[in-house]
Amino acid sequence: LALANAGVEKLHPYQPGKPVAELERELGISNSVKLASNENPLGLSPKARAAIERSLPELARYPDANGFALKSALAGKLGVNTDQLVLGNGSNELIDLVFHTFVAAQQQVVFSQYTFIVYAMATQAHGAQAVEIPAKDFGHDLDAMAAAITDQTKLVCITNPNNPTGTFLTKAELAAFLAKVPRQVLVILDEAYTEYVAEDERHPSIDWLAQYPNLIVSRTFSKAYGLAGLRVGYMVAHPELISVLNRVREPFNCNSLGLAAAEAALNDEAYLSEVVELNRREMARYETFFEQLGLRYVTSRGNFITLDLQRNAAPVYEALLREGVIVRPIAGYGLPTCLRISIGLEHENQRCMDALAKILA
Ligand code: PMP
């Protein structure tokens, strides 16, 4: 087959966790707990569920191609105009859309080692050149990233909090970085986990948009809003940039159920507080547990925590599976000694901790 570019030829598929039913069948177990994909353990917000039910009779119709209601709700919440918003089938689709729209073959894309793997994949799929900057303390080395920008650089990708390590860049660090980036270079600031960050620590990324027409803030309804299966994400940026993305994207990229559920979830503040509070409480419990066992972990601001076993983590991953606890090995991210554990419900986390204590005893 003649492919569009050499990058496509070398592309490896994204490796999601196996479906739970398949894993359970293979292992001959039932009632496993899945702490592998940074999903929301509380399930749907009741308001989102009601919105989905209300939308069912409309499913024979096409969705609203412009997502008017969701964009209006988001604009109100974020204090931006609707022409600063583009909606996607998950933020993943939008990341790809940015590459498709702006990144030409051979141009350079700068990102950090140990960051969300889709940035490397999209770079390769579009025949662009990856400039991967070695991580500093498991997170982004912003000085080195700024220094790596050249005349060939088109895009810089920053994930904050970072996945899979959970590291966090402060407002001061990010503000200093943005000031150094030339205006012709786009910056995606991926904030998939931003809702988990305490409000006083969160960086004012939306306010920075007025100052930086090259900044694209990316967010999702898959994590704190609990809608991973419905695939809704959004980007916020300068209207000119958004207008191009809206012309290039597919007209019906977001489905009716996702649009309705996202709007309802956005307005369910009680649910969001519960989600964030559960995560804060259970994260603290994992930290205490790791400290008691003398295990190394990376301090995380996301809904997951990365444990560094300082030896090949694969046998521990396998042993956890046999105990019915599914976590995420991240050797594919270059971290073969680490396991990423998504924060679950209290009893799920307890199972994970009990299994780890047993395996590592
Ligand atoms: N960005 C980051 C940093 C992520 O971890 C994820 C999901 N794993 C995404 C984007 C994509 O999420 P979605 O497509 O579900 O919005």
What would your notes on this structure say?
The protein is an alpha/beta fold and 361 residues long. It has two domains: 6-43 and 270-360, Aspartate Aminotransferase, domain 1, CATH 3.90.1150.10; 46-268, Type I PLP-dependent aspartate aminotransferase-like (Major domain) (Aspartate Aminotransferase, domain 2, 3-Layer(aba) Sandwich). 40% of the residues lie in helices and 16% in strands. The strands form three sheets. The chain has a seven-stranded mixed β-sheet with strand order 2-8-7-6-5-3-4, sandwiched between helices. It has a four-stranded antiparallel β-sheet with strand order 9-10-13-12, with helices on one face. Strand 3 (108-112), helix 6 and strand 4 form a beta-alpha-beta unit. The mean pLDDT is 96. The structure holds 4'-deoxy-4'-aminopyridoxal-5'-phosphate. 4'-deoxy-4'-aminopyridoxal-5'-phosphate is lined by residues 38, 90-92, 116, 159, 163, 190, 192, 220, 222, 228, 233.
Q: How does CATH name the architecture of the largest domain?
A: 3-Layer(aba) Sandwich
CATH topology name of the largest domain: Aspartate Aminotransferase, domain 2
| Low-pLDDT residue intervals, each spanning 5 or more residues | none
* SSE pattern: HHEHHEHEHEHEHEHEEHHHEEHEEEH
| Morphology call | globular
